[in-house]
Amino acid sequence: MLETLNPQPQDKILQLIAMYRDDPRQNKIDLGVGVYKDASGLTPVMRAVKAAEKKLWETEQTKTYTGLAGEPAYSAAMIGMILGDGFEARAAAVATPGGTGAIRQALELIRLANPAASVWLSNPTWPNHPSIIKYLGMPMAEYRYFDAAGGGIDFAGLMADLAHVQAGDAVLLHGCCHNPTGANLNADEWDTVAKLLLARGAVPFVDLAYQGFGDGLQEDAAATRMIAGLFPEVLIAASCSKNFGIYRERTGVLIALTSPERKAVVQGNLNFLNRQNFSFPPDHGARLVTMILGDEALRADWMAELEEVRLNMLSLRQSLADALRLATNSDRFDFVARHRGMFSRLGLTEAQVNQLREEHGIYMVGDSRINIAGLNARTVPILAAAIASVAG
Question: Is 126 a catalytic residue?
Fold first, then answer.
């Protein structure tokens, strides 16, 4: 049987990791991997996570299974963090293995509810979005998003494309810190998009992987909360990997907003999908998050450290934009300071990206997406000078 299998295409980011690891140069720079790093290159364990783990080790009495949906306290804590108060009667939710697991379960739910529904994705988007949709054999469509020339959003193209959404289609929206571009809709644009989708009868599907990494914990949830209050049905896939720094614990949640009358049925279907895919979701990371969000002192310390992380990335963005302005004698890259989150797409060609890797030991994804958090005060001017040398 197994001899009939064909090789699968390699993940480009994983290939990049291997190439960086095998590069013997001491001054190489890794801007490809999508994890937060401090100035020393370490992805640290947050103080509140360490404190919660210590408390859990001292008090945990069993490792028995949790429920199919995970612990209700975790779902309640995440719903509160993402949406605030007032949504409990409408919100069905399940814990998932990371944000990717939440996205997979949301797509499975869409397919279960309406196999004919198309899933609309921004162009570009995170590569796993179309990969999973194609694997599931679901209809898919794209809407324009990024204006590579100006480093902003092609809002006219976006609106023109979304005008073709059909009733019942799901439209995947990045709640904040768009991956891979870093370019976000402003409040007026969010309002305009929401009104169009509401008129078209679409179901918003929000991927919220970076809450707290952009403009602040509450500010980054504003668009999701606006949509949640406007639409009768909303799907929200959220991750704790970045804002809690627990990447390897695979901690995510899928929230499905519906009517109070339909909540029990939706919850039952979410439980069913968890059962089919992995039975019980992982609990360690979810329990840490629940402890942190439910303890006033731990939550305050976590929010303070998350704010340090956010401000560090903003500082790196401004430093890089300033260094690129100086190195190129132009404002071509000023948009880097306006972007939010870990990523920006620089608008370089694949040949220029290859040249940066081969001649300067600077590793980034082929579409010129860089992880801002991979920089520090020493490497910012090095990157700016290298980009200036290849960009002409």
Answer: yes
